[in-house]
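Long-time lurker, first post. I've been practising inverse folding by hand and with some scripts of my own, and I keep getting stuck on stretches where the structure tokens seem ambiguous. Below is the full token string for one chain I'm working on. Before anyone asks, I'm not after the true native sequence, just a reasonable design that respects the backbone. If someone could post their per-position residues I'd love to compare against what I wrote down in my notebook.
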């Protein structure tokens, strides 16, 4: 494979799971996902993406997607269970999300995680041309920066953590905390969604590695590791173009008719994940119906839960609980032809999501913890006018930017109920003021601004102590 001056290293290649009959690959887009975030940047920029293509066994060669070359990394069944389902998503994911679910520590998972991270680092070293920029993405590959530095000290290495980074007292629970921290700090620039994460890392580096310096410049092993907050965003221009497509406009009208032209529509779009607060949201909605504060004849909820990590036991249990609760709510409060909740456990394409965003009166984004949450930004960008309300968790990274949303603590079910009612009852002029302010912000802080800010900072980062 030819070498590239820009190499992206991420757990998954940005491929749609359904390859076209002629063998062509299509870009994989999921609500709020990494591939969607990077699509606008890499669509016209020559680069190589190193990642897993899905499935197990030997990795096959893949055709380019436009100017993007693909370098697949193979995983065995055992590695998939240990590295991905195990250490990444049953140890790191829950711990990094404030231990909403109890993390599991398994020594065999660590061995798989370390071996797979080395394979990713070797693949990146192979495809990076001399002096290239290598941009490593997220918690799955936290050891890659240091491993890559040992293999290719000539390249410039960036690492971006899309999920939250936990407070020191939680991170300290990890049996392999030193290796994980040193692995991440092998980068020249470590980017986070929020400034607090950089502060947490600086504290840990001093405690565990004897580093010194400041939150934004950690001095370790005669190197300066730059850190900073770079809130990720969306392609606002693409969403506006999508909004204007006749299919999207017509689909939004049809959805409004099907849901009830006179009804107020509450919408949530999440990956099916315990961090997203879906169960708390259903409890709040159910209690509002129970108390008669909203009624099925004039309000309906649409919950999209995109399937996720279906091989992980805790996710299967979550799906079962949610489906039972939706069934109970519809059984108690629904009427013939009028369910209280429309529940959709299926993937959605971009056009249908845009139509849903346009249909909603209130978008309910209430994760218990989230690095950013791009669905909230997609909703704001998708509105064709200044109508609509956004109810947003205080614990989503997006809350720091979208302060004109109706902010809520999703752990407080009574507070969530009152906030939903406030959003439903808000005056049109109040909603217009809020929506315009949020739209103005994401327009000037879109995905291109995020990429420019991060890559410029990486280019300016220095590997040696001044």
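-- Answer (accepted) --
I ran through it position by position. Result:
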């Amino acid at each position: 494979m030819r070498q590239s001056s820009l190499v992206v290293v991420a757990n998954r290649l940005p491929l749609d799971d359904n390859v076209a009959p002629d063998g062509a690959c299509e870009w994989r887009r999921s609500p709020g996902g990494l591939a969607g975030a990077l699509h606008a940047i890499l669509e016209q920029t020559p680069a190589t993406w190193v990642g897993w293509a899905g499935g197990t066994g030997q990795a096959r060669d893949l055709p380019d997607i436009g100017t993007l070359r693909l370098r697949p990394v193979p995983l065995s069944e055992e590695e998939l269970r240990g590295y991905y389902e195990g250490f990444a998503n049953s140890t790191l994911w829950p711990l990094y999300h404030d231990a909403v679910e109890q993390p599991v520590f398994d020594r065999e998972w660590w061995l798989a995680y370390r071996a797979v991270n080395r394979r990713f680092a070797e693949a990146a070293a192979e495809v990076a041309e001399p002096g290239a920029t290598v941009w490593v993405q997220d918690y799955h590959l936290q050891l890659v920066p240091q491993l890559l530095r040992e293999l290719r000290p000539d390249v410039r290495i960036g690492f971006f953590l899309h999920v939250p980074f936990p407070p020191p007292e939680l991170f300290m629970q990890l049996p392999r905390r030193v290796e994980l921290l040193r692995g991440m700090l092998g980068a020249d620039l470590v980017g986070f969604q929020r400034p607090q994460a950089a502060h947490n890392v600086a504290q840990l580096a001093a405690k565990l590695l004897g580093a010194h310096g400041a939150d934004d410049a950690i001095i370790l092993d005669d190197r300066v590791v730059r850190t900073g907050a770079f809130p990720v965003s969306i392609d606002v221009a693409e969403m506006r173009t999508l909004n204007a497509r006749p299919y999207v406009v017509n689909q939004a009208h049809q959805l409004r008719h099907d849901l009830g032209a006179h009804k107020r529509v509450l919408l949530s779009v999440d990956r099916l994940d315990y961090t997203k607060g879906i169960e708390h949201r259903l409890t709040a909605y159910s209690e509002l119906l129970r108390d008669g504060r909203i009624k099925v004849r004039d309000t309906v909820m649409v919950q999209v839960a995109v399937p996720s990590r279906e091989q992980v036991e805790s996710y299967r249990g979550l799906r079962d609980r949610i489906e039972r609760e939706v069934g109970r709510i519809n059984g108690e409060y629904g009427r013939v032809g009028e369910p209280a909740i429309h529940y959709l456990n299926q993937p959605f394409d971009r056009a249908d999501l845009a139509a849903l965003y346009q249909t909603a009166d209130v978008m309910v984004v209430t994760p218990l913890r989230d690095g950013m949450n791009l669905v909230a930004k997609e909703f704001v960008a998708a509105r064709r006018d200044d109508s609509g309300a956004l109810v947003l968790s205080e614990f989503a990274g997006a809350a720091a930017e979208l302060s004109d949303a109706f902010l809520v603590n999703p752990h407080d079910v009574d507070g969530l109920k009152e906030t939903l009612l406030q959003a439903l009852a808000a005056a049109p002029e109040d909603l217009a003021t809020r929506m315009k302010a949020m739209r103005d912000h994401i327009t000037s802080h879109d995905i291109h601004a995020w990429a420019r800010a991060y890559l410029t900072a990486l280019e300016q980062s220095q590997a040696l102590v001044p």
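A couple of notes from the structure itself: Residues 18-25 have pLDDT under 50 and may be disordered. The chain has 16 helices and 15 strands. Happy to go over any region you disagree with.
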